[in-house]
Design brief:
single chain; about 40% strand; mainly beta; 1 helix
C-alpha cells in the first residue's frame, strides 16, 4: 500500500445494528450509494459523530445486513433529520450515508504491527 494511501477503516461492530435497514442504490451513471434513516439515543449519536470525524477522507468498509460481501466507500457527514419518531429513549433521527460504493472481499490488507 502506498504511504500516501489511507488504510480502509472497518465499520465498528458495536454500531453494526444501525446498518440493518440500509438501502444500496445505483445512480444513472452506475455509481452506488447507500443510506439509512434511524432514531438514535444520545450515546449512540456521540459514537457516530466521533467515528465520522475519524474517518473523514478515508474509505469505510461496511457489510449490509444479509449481504455476503462487503462494500467500501466514503462516509458522508451525518445529517440530522429532527426529533426521533419512536421511543422516548431516542433523542433524534439521523441519516447515515455512504458514497461511491465499490464491492470488497472483506479482507483487511493493512499491515499489522
Amino acid at each position: 500500500m502506498p504511504l500516501t494511501q489511507n488504510p480502509i477503516v472497518e465499520w465498528p461492530k458495536e454500531l453494526q445494528h444501525l446498518l440493518g435497514g440500509i438501502q444500496v442504490v445505483a445512480h444513472e451513471d452506475g455509481k452506488r450509494y447507500a443510506r439509512v434513516d434511524i432514531d438514535i439515543d444520545p450515546g449512540t449519536l456521540f459514537l457516530l459523530n466521533d467515528f465520522e470525524a475519524r474517518v473523514r477522507h478515508r474509505q469505510v468498509r461496511i457489510r449490509p445486513a444479509g449481504a455476503d460481501e462487503c462494500l467500501v466507500g466514503g462516509m458522508n457527514a451525518l445529517v440530522g433529520l429532527g426529533a426521533a419518531a419512536g421511543s422516548a429513549d431516542h433523542l433524534s433521527r439521523v441519516r447515515i450515508s455512504f458514497h461511491d460504493l465499490l464491492d470488497d472481499d472483506c479482507i483487511d490488507r493493512s499491515p499489522h504491527m
